[in-house]
Amino acid sequence: VLKPVEELLPHASVFSNLMHLEFNGDPLGVDSVTLLKLLENFPYLETLAFLEGIYSNCENDDGILDPVPPCFLSHLKCIKVCNYIGSGKQPSAMKILLKNAVVLDKMVLSYSNRFAQDCLKRRKATEQLLEIPKGSKNCEFVFE
Q1: What is the pTM of this model?
Q2: Which of 22, 29, 82, 84 could form a cystine bridge with 49, CB 3.0-4.6 A?
Q3: Phi first, then psi: what are they for 113, rounded to 5°?
Q4: For position 23, what pLDDT does the model report?
């Protein structure tokens, strides 16, 4: 009998040696309970990559994760987000990541191919990103 992922997560092992994690497939909700519970099992994670993009279903605009994964508070130095288009539910997802990752050194972004062709939209999205308050004073953006 298969159980839902949410039921299995409390029994998952802690991977203390895992330092790099990539999500590939569909865009991922950064505020999903399943993702947050999963990230609790990687306390020393240093790099987190969302290869197909991100979104947020957050109704309020405070950007607070509950619970905040331990790696966001102590070890997460780099987040990579691919296929960014700067609209819809993506800006609020970026706000959540930037606000909660308090030791973040680098936010690496790559725009979607079609979006990258539009200089005006890309410039506007970049300006919006640079205005987002960050939990880490050392965080810099790298655009690929």
Answers
A1: 0.87
A2: 22
A3: -55, -50
A4: 93
How far lies 81's CA from each of 1, 2, 6, 16, 17, in Å?
35, 31, 25, 23, 23
Beta strands in the chain (DSSP E): 20-23, 28-29, 47-50, 54-55, 78-84, 106-111, 140-143
55, 95 Cβ separation under 8 angstroms:
no
Which one-letter DSSP state was computed for residue 40?
A: T
Beta strands at 28-29 and 54-55: parallel, antiparallel or unpaired: parallel
Partners of 49 in the beta sheet?
A: 22, 80
With beta carbons less than 8 A apart as the criterion, state whether 74 and 109 touch: no
Burial 15-52 (b: 16+ CB within 10 A, else e): eeeeeebebeeebbbbbeeebbbbbbbbbebbbbbbee
Q: Specify the DSSP class assigned to residue 20.
A: E
Strands 20-23 and 47-50: parallel
